[in-house]
Amino acid sequence: MGRKSYSSFASRIVKLAKRARDEETLETDRIAGVPHPRETMTLIGQDEALARAARAIRRGRPPQAWLIGGPPGVGKATFAYRVARYLLRYGATDAGPEDLSLPANDPVAALVRAGAHPGLLAIKRGLNPDTGKLMTVLSVDEIRKLGNFFGLTSASGGWRIAVIDTADEMNDQAANALLKILEEPPRRAMLMLLAHAPARLASTIRSRCQALHLQPLSEASFAAALAERLPQVSTADRARLVALSGGSIGAALRLVGEDGLKLAAEAEKLIERAAAPDFAATLALAERVAKFDRGMETFGVYLTQMLAARILARAREGAPHLDRWVELCNRIRASFVRSAALHLEPRQTIVSAARAIAARRAAL
Fold first, then answer.
1. Contact 264, 241 (CB under 8 A)
2. Pairwise CA distance, residues 357 & 87, whole Å
3. Are 48 and 223 a contacting pair, CB within 8 Å?
4. Predicted local confidence at residue 299, as pLDDT
5. How far apart are CA 271 and CA 275, in angstroms?
6. Which of 10, 136, 171, 236 has the most beta carbons within 10 angstroms of its beta carbon?
């Protein structure tokens, strides 16, 4: 098929895929207002890992599976889709660019962007059919899709690539099913396992993958990326994002998209009031948190994150008895996780956290 005919075919597939996705698929891994990783053509701050992957692919010796680790939001999915586009376009050859890039208007890039390339499968947590809510684990039913996918004849003799996002969310049954595939890998196929915490995976799975670890961005790269992606955010708020998101672009974008900056400011106020507790202000805070989407979960993350940062700062100053603060921080974290999981009313959890912080009395 000539390039012009292929482009026309790809265009038709893209339109069909967009229509199907709009009607049938909820993209649970998309951040509102932000391009999906498969739509993102720029990879920031991961030059070392990208160079290592490029050497293996362009020399014709890619592994059967890559285990791509790193903190949430650091670019693991963006990295995986970049590798996938190159393999689907050029195979394991040096015919393409050294940085594994494709132009946005390339037919393969268009198909991947639309979620329509027949050689690419994304595996992620699905919705519970009984509750309609996102499942807490990556189930065996999702992993079993790999068997059918890899059993198909690859299009035009090309590659088949599966991205598992994220592999450390698999339950035991799913992990066992994945191990069977890794033990007998198909030809001209690649698995890319994304993991926030690769050590959680069984050693039998880790040993059958080649590890690539993506690092949080440097402060300079991170600040530049935020300025490019969030020009509407003030300089002061971007500095706050740098402090809160730990070098993770994804975390920073979620902070902005899910009112995280407002919730982070509320968490800071609660800690500041610990020396002189204001019960009425704490109740008002709980009411505000309840109005945010995922407010309870997000507020708990930032409250414990800020407590941990203060504890660390005091430890560097040589302050004594910080083990009690560490224990308290862990208890507060557990209480917010439990309350968010059970969809409890936030008032009691927030009031209890405020009282526990105030009861310590020692300043942080």
1. no
2. 53
3. no
4. 84
5. 8
6. 10
pLDDT in tens, 20-37: 444 334 565 666 666 789
Question: For the domain bounded by 3-213, which CATH number is listed?
Answer: 3.40.50.300
Instruction: State yes or no: cis peptide before 153, omega within 30 of 0.
Output: no
| Residue whose pair of structure tokens reads 């376009």 in the numeric block | 89
Q: How is residue 274 written in tokens?
A: 């610990």
Distance, in Å, from the CA atom of 302 to the CA atom of 156, rounded to the nearest integer, reads 49
Q: Which tokens hold the place of 91? A: 């195979």
pLDDT at 203: 96
Alpha carbons 314 and 362: distance in angstroms, whole number: 11
Q: Tell me the sheet residues that pair with 195.
A: 69
What whole-number distance in Å separates Cα of residue 65 and Cα of residue 188? 11
CA distance 353 to 181: 46
Counting Cβ atoms within 10 Å, is residue 36 exposed (0-12), middle (13-18) or buried (19+)? middle
For every residue of 158-222, DSSP letters joined together read --EEEEEETGGGB-HHHHHHHHHHHHSPPTTEEEEEEESSGGGS-HHHHTTSEEEEPPPPPHHHH
What's the CA gap between 36 and 53, in Å, rounded?
22
Of the candidates 63, 66, 292, the residue with the CA atom closest to the CA atom of residue 163: 66
Tracing tokens 């991961």 back to the chain, one arrives at 46
Q: At 152, phi and psi to the nearest 5?
A: -75, 150
Residues of the chain with pLDDT under 50: 1, 13, 16-25, 156
Query: Which amino acid is present at 178?
Result: L
Tell how strand 65-69 and strand 160-165 pair up.
unpaired
Give me the DSSP letters along 128-147: -TTT-SBPSSB-HHHHTHHH
Q: Identify the pLDDT of residue 296.
A: 82
Report the DSSP beta bridge partners of residue 65. 191
Please state the three-class secondary structure of 217-281 as a single string: CCHHHHHHHHHHHCCCCCHHHHHHHHHHHCCCHHHHHHHHHCCHHHHHHHHHHHHHHHHCCCHHH
| Predicted local confidence at residue 2, as pLDDT | 52
State the Cα–Cα distance between residues 278 and 119, nearest whole angstrom.
59
In three-state secondary structure terms, 161 is strand
CB 96 within 8 A of CB 90: yes
